[in-house]
Amino acid sequence: MDDAPLVEHEVVCLSVNHRCADLAARERLVFGAEEAAQAMTALREAGAVDEVVLVSTCNRTEIFAAYAIGEDAAAVGATPARDGDRSKPLLAILEARRGFRPEEHPRNYETARGIGAIRHLFRVAAGLESQLLGESQVLSQLKDAGRRAREAGTSGRILHRLWERALRVGKRVRTETALGEGPVSASYAALELARKVFGSLAELRILVIGAGEIGLLTMENLTGVPHGALTIMNRTREEAEQVAARFGGRVRSFDELSDALIEADLVISTTAAPHFIVGFDHMRRVRARRGGERPLLIIDLALPRDFDPRCGALDLVFLHNLDDLAQIVGESQEQRRRELPRAEEIVEEECEGFSEWMSSLAIEPTILGLRERFEAIRAEELERVRGDLEPAAFAALERTTRRLVNRLLHLPSENLRRHRALRDRDLVRVVHEVLTKEIPHPRQEEERPGS
Amino acid sequence: MQIAFAASLLLLPVLYTLLISGYGRLFAGTPSGVARIARPLLAATVGLHFVSMLLRGLQLGACPLASRWEFVSLVALSIAVTYLLIEIRIGDQRTGIFVITLAFLLQFAASVFMPRGDSAAAAARLGAMPSVFLVALIVGYSAVAVSCIYGILYLFLYGAIKRGRFGLFFRKAPPLATLASQNHHAAVAAFMALGAALAAGAIAMWGSEAGVPEAVAREFAEASAVWLAFGAVLGAWRWFDLGAKRLAVSSVAGAGLAAALHLATILNEAFHG
User: Fold this and answer.
1) Whether B245 and A199 lie within 8 Å, measured CB to CB
2) Do B176 and A196 touch (CB under 8 A)?
3) Contact A365, A429 (CB under 8 A)
4) What is the Cα–Cα distance from A206 to A200, expressed in whole angstroms?
5) Which of A130, A249, A334, B181 is 20 to 30 A from residue A122's alpha carbon, by CA?
6) How far is the C-alpha of A330 from the C-alpha of B166, rounded, in Å?
7) Who's near B72: CB < 8 A, 6+ residues apart?
8) Is there a contact between B131 and B70 (Cβ–Cβ < 8 Å)?
9) In this complex, do B157 and A196 lie within 8 Å of one another by their Cβ atoms?
């Protein structure tokens, strides 16, 4: 019987992120979905890594790799990496594909291995490494990266499990803490404010005044959010029509401003007009003509302002400007910072859980070897009595012995996986030898010539 | 039966405390632990509270309104039931902490002070229709109180948004539209329960051969005033587009009217000895 090879695994990570690399460097290293799959496959096929996942977003390009380590790594078809050079193949692929020379940018990347790499991924998933603390988009980006690696066949047992855990960390942090709550940009804060007044945006009539850069950004944020009729008003009608065609709204001219204000529930104003486009008396007339008791929320994102601030004094008219939105954003960020300790606690809990699982992998070959030995003995003994028994009796004996082996091995197998002392590599080797190998009798050793 | 009733009096404040903890977490946005089962737990608490009142009724052999603490307990139950129905209808749990805390305070006081024996029973043996009148009246006034709470929450959030105070309450409270809907449902519940109370009261007074007790007649008159006020407000909401803000103001005013009428009665009684 062949001895089961004794291998361990290590996770390594290379990260080029917003903290260590400027926008120009990050832009250069962005990988599209197809390119990422090709890079991962190239790394895997070159035998540089056993498993690999590449994550590429606007804020980071990260490569996570898993290696088999230890003397027997080659026996399982892995390329054992020497200490100290485990991130080299990862840097090499960036150089080959993007011309990123590490010696020219020694401060533009970070590397981590073992628990450090695992912790880094979990922190990324939790949004703790994001530019906007706690943002949740990174979670879906990680999910996509994991899926791409699975489809490309470059992630295996280790990284698949690591990714599952990372997504779990992201979900836990967002459900068990308030880290992801509240808006973190002015345009999201505007939508948050609208939700706080109207509940849902689904049937909201939205009027956007001004089709400039801020107006476009606001409408982009509305994309994907179910909302009611969108009306666009701009000094230049052609521009308004282009924007309307892009975002699916209708165009009204500035002459119809009063009518548009009467019909709207949410007004987002972003013109570059040098004076108020709606004065107090104008708004008072609009308010009177709106009838009923419909609230009107006006987000004045223009500088100088488009609406006379006194309009906000009218009953059921909520008028907010950039400063108000900055206050909402500031409150959210402060609240998110308060949630940091709990989020970090979750990351550490999950790191510990994953490390335990990784450690238990080192003992798997021993468990496998033990089981093979038991199975071999069982088969041998069954073979001895095969001729003496009726087929039905033999089948019953076969079932009984299989159950017996399973029951005998269950407790030791579980204990081997769980025992904390077996995180020690030397001890694992001793246990492996004791349970799976024929150790020569000391007297035989002495009798061996030359010993 | 006495032991079961005493046990329920001990258990109810504990359950309401658990509910406060759960709804507190739901308001804070960290729905873990008991918060995950807040609604079934509330339904179970309401069920136990109902059984407790039933046991008290069986113990007394009459409607369980023998002392003011039974009255208080019935108010707590009615508030919890009204909230549960609104939560089921609207689906938002973030206001539970405000309403259930009131129910807890009332039930806690009732559990501490309610007499365990039936010595007070004789004082409160009412006929069937007067009992129905009183119970419906309590349910109606409890819904008025819930409506008042929602009115206050609405006005508070309205003020916070209007003045740009984007603090804890702004972040955690449900949207204005949700609070308006909850307020409307509570006002409708108050109107319907008070209407039922007035119908039962009218039957009780019409069928009474021994004459109508002064207290019942007075309650009837007060309830009529509050019922008419809520009817007018809900009519204006339905047909004249009254608006959520005015409904909120009216709910608070309606609760104020009910409180003022009761205060006037108490002062009048005190003045006349």
Assistant:
1) no
2) yes
3) no
4) 13
5) A334
6) 10
7) B106, B107, B109, B110
8) no
9) yes
d(CA B164, CA A80): 61
Q: Are A340 and A208 in contact (CB under 8 A)?
A: no
CATH-assigned architecture of domain A8-180+339-357: 2-Layer Sandwich (3.30)
Please tell me whether residue A203 adopts helix, strand or coil conformation: coil
- CA angle, B255 then B259 then B262, to 5°: 140
Short-list A264, A226, A230, CA closest to A244:
A230
User: Does residue A381 contact residue A401 with C-beta atoms inside 8 Å?
Assistant: yes
Beta bridge partners of A299: A268, A320
> Residue A73 has what pLDDT?
53
Which CATH class, in words, describes the domain spanning A186-329?
Answer: alpha beta
Q: How far is residue A377's CA from residue A1's CA, in Å, rounded to a whole number?
A: 11
The letter for the amino acid at A122 is F
**In chain A, domain spans:** 8-180+339-357, 186-329, 366-442
Comparing CA positions, the residue from B165, B140, B156 lying closest to residue B248 is B156
The two three-digit tokens of residue B54, written as one number: 């039933």
Bond before A304 cis per omega within 30 degrees: yes
CB pairs below 8 Å between A and B: how many? 58
Q: Which of B28, B30, B175 sits opposite A199 (nearest CB)?
A: B175
Best residue of A196, A203, A204, A311 to probe chain B, by most B CBs closer than 10 Å = A196
Q: Give tens-digit pLDDT for A25-77.
A: 887 888 888 899 999 999 888 887 889 999 998 778 999 999 887 655 555 44
CATH tag for B1-119 (out of 1.20.140, 3.30.160, 3.30.420, 1.20.120): 1.20.120
* Cis peptide bond prior to A449, omega within 30° of 0: no
Compute the distance between CA of residue A447 and CA of residue B7 in angstroms, rounded to an integer: 83
C-alpha–C-alpha distance, residues A375 and A1, integer Å: 11
CB–CB of A15/A23 below 8 Å? Answer: no
